[in-house]
Amino acid sequence: MKGHKIHCIFDDGNSLDFDCSAEDSLITGAEKQGLSFVFGCRQGVCGTCKVRCTEGSVNHGEQASLDVLPEEEREQGYILSCVASPRSDLVIEFPYDAVDVGVDSDATSSIATVLGCEQLSTTVFRYRLQHMSEEGSQPEALEFIPGQYMELNIPESDYWRAFSMSSVPDEKGEMEFIIRLQDKGKFSNYLRDAVKVGQQVKMNGPYGQFTLEPSNRVRAFVAGSTGLAPLVSMLRGMALTNDNGEAHLFFGMGDPETFFYEEELRQLEKAMPNLKLHLFLISPADDWSGEKGSAVDGFRKQFDGTGVLPDVYICGPDGMIKATEQVCSELGIPAEQQFKEIFVASGRTK
Fold first, then answer.
1. C-alpha span between 211 and 223 (Å, rounded)
2. What is the pLDDT of residues 162-210, one digit of tens each?
3. Residue 35 per-residue DSSP state
């Protein structure tokens, strides 16, 4: 079966068509034809892939979250393209230009070799890979924009997870991922029990639009848990390009056992004279050198009453993001200066 015709209209007036089976999500169907639309979680919970369907109907199944696609938006035709499958031919309006669509994209399948894996805290692992040439014989640089992510496969399985790089591109193709452990997570079990240096890992990507926007304004980075990864990548990218703009990183965890990456962040602060670290613990030990409380409270305290309206980059659990957005609203920071990516603990098979 050929599938349904999907007619895509973009902000710049350009359009394109592709075919999509009723068994595939729109994102998956597009990928099968060499197209890479904007998306994030693939689970219908982050809202990055939201578009407007003006003709035809789709099936969301049980996956589309009412938090990111409320009933009033559904009535207006909005859909989540990462989980929506076509029931008919469709006409879809995309909130970005056609140039932002990867056509025969640089996002490709590739191979990496495991360089190492170490536990950074009771809840977090550092996973290091090296991108390899197509034949897998030698290291090769991987181009990506700081803040983007890769889909990684568990060796000898059909299970994939999406993780943001905490590193920046280098000529050796080395990549670092900061990964939170899940009690019954398949990827977590792999990192705990089965990962081996030298293993080959299949990858897809890079993907994602959560990247730095050009700006002369102060930048504030608010991170929760392993949502730290893409923000560190952005900061390292600033250092690499000699971007000396004022920046603040607000990062916190619950207690000393779960806190991670302090040494690396201190090194980054030394390398970036205009970066100020704000590190927090809800329940600190007596020897804690940072601050007590949450990263969100620290963000509020830093900018409240100053008149400074920074560009704000937020990554972490949904509750933390909503709390940060509320603070942004209280401070009068415009929505167009707020950039977010929700940390989603999920995977997929294919």
1. 14
2. 899 999 999 999 999 999 998 888 999 999 999 999 999 999 888 888 8
3. E
3-state secondary structure (DSSP) of residue 15 = strand
Residue whose pair of structure tokens reads 């025969």 in the numeric block: 104
Q: Where are the domains of the chain?
A: 4-103, 108-209, 219-344
Closest CA to 80 of 349, 350, 344: 344
At CA 13, angle to CA 9 and CA 14, rounded to 5? 65
Report how far apart, in Å, the C-alpha atoms of 180 and of each of 7, 239, 288, 348 are: 39, 26, 22, 17
Q: What is the DSSP letter of 230?
A: H
Average pLDDT, stretch 5-34? 90
3-state SS, residue 86: strand
The Cα-based distances of 130 to 87, 114, 171 in angstroms read: 41, 7, 10
Q: Residue 249 pLDDT more than 80?
A: yes
Q: What's the rounded Cα separation, in Å, for the pair 304 and 35?
A: 43
Class level of CATH domain 4-103? alpha beta
22 in Cβ contact with 86 (< 8 Å): yes
Q: Count of residues for the chain? A: 350
pLDDT value for 104: 42
Structure tokens of 77?
């035709």
Radius of gyration from C-alpha coordinates of the chain = 21
Minimum mean pLDDT among 3-7, 39-43, 214-218: which range? Answer: 39-43
* DSSP-derived secondary structure letter, 123: S
CATH match for 108-209 among 1.20.1250.20, 3.30.70.1730, 2.40.30.10, 3.40.50.2300: 2.40.30.10
Residue type, 147: G
The kind and range of the H/E element at 73 are: helix 71-75
CATH class of the domain at 219-344: alpha beta
